[in-house]
Amino acid sequence: MKSASRDQIYEDLKNARSNFRKTEITGMDLSGMDLSGADFRFSDLSGVNFSNSILKKTNLSFSNLDDANFENADLTDANLSFSSLVEANLTNAKIAGANFSFSGISKRNPTDRFASLTHFLYRTGWFGTVIGIFIGAFIFYGVSAVIYFTHQILTASDPRLAMLNQYIVGNNISGGIITVLITNWLSGPLEKYFKAPWIQHLTLSLIVGIGYLGLITFSYFQFGDKIISDVLEKFPNQVTNSAPWYVYVLCPIFVANVFHYFQKQGKQLTLIITEQELQLSELEKSKTKAELEALQAKINPHFLYNSLNSIASLVHLDPDKAEQMTLLLSKLFRYVTNKKADYFDSLDNELEMVATYLEIEQVRFGDRLSFKIIVRDETLRNIPVPRFLIQPVVENAIKHGIARIADRGVIEVRVTKEQNLLRITVHDNGPSFPEPISGGYGLQSVQNKLKLLYGGKAAVSLQNIPLKQVILDLPFTP
Questions:
Q1: Measuring CA to CA, how many Å separate 171 from each of 59, 133, 141?
Q2: CB of 13 within 8 A of CB of 33?
């Protein structure tokens, strides 16, 4: 495995060379670099710092990315399949469209650090218990104060004392509302313009402290001065051992910083949940894609052997038929091996493929097989249907129907629209389905495909009465 330096990687990128396969660059600082489209497959990138780097469409598959730092990196459409991401840091990384299939995703929560108050609360040790007791006592004290002042207002012996308590409660409620509003308004800009948390908290403390002082000063001269003067006039011996003003300012500052802290924690937690949901979604998509590819119809080897043997026997007996069958077989396999096709194709193309398949079988069976394909409404031919959906059903009809009778066999494929369903019916005049009729009668792959593509909105059913037929009901999407 070759090694490389940051300068070498920079020079290679500058010269439009982005192939770093099987490279060993453990622990290197590649932060802030534009690595879009680079190829790092099978590389040892453990401990590499990719923070703030652009890794759009970068190929990191089969790489060792243990302890790698992708904080604030752009991993849009990157390929990390089969890579090891144990203890990797994906905090704030953009991973839309990234492929994490079969990768060892990090087990570490990026916010699960010693400085996290959330972590303290959920720790099972003594420290978490102490923090929990402190917060619980603080909340209990606050609730008790609310109860005390409410009781004083309701049971005051003199209206002046009731007014004083109302003034105190009003100031506290107003202070709480202003503090929360200012914190909510400033949290976003503070995180945007100040990266260091201590600067965020210091700036917030200054703004909230000044704002609270302005509020209580306005409140005092507007209401408090008269209320307090009236109380002292009526109760000249009333002793007020109030704490210094700066002590009260600490209350909104403390509340603002706690709110700001938990807002940041909540954003990180939401981001982590979103990333995990996206990763799970991508993994589920990859799994579904793999399952669908595994279910894509593979032409039965026996069909191929029989077809080639038929061609070999016809070469001397009927060269024209041998040529016809060869061309039909070539046409069929061209459709089967079309790599560019999606999981869906038009009904017209699917029926053409089925007709080609039946024409080949017709050459092999001769007069023992005839078929019809009936589409009453020609507009249905443009409807998208899953590829290779009808051919396995027709193959099943030949194998378990036509091949078991000595008389002339008939296969009829009929397409109709039934309310909000597209109904495809495959009928043959072979032996009836054994009782009880089971959906697993050679059609399990068709059922699995419909389940993956449509969920519970599509169905396969088998009938013996009034006709022996297999019915495929698909959601109608014109």
A1: 59, 28, 18
A2: yes
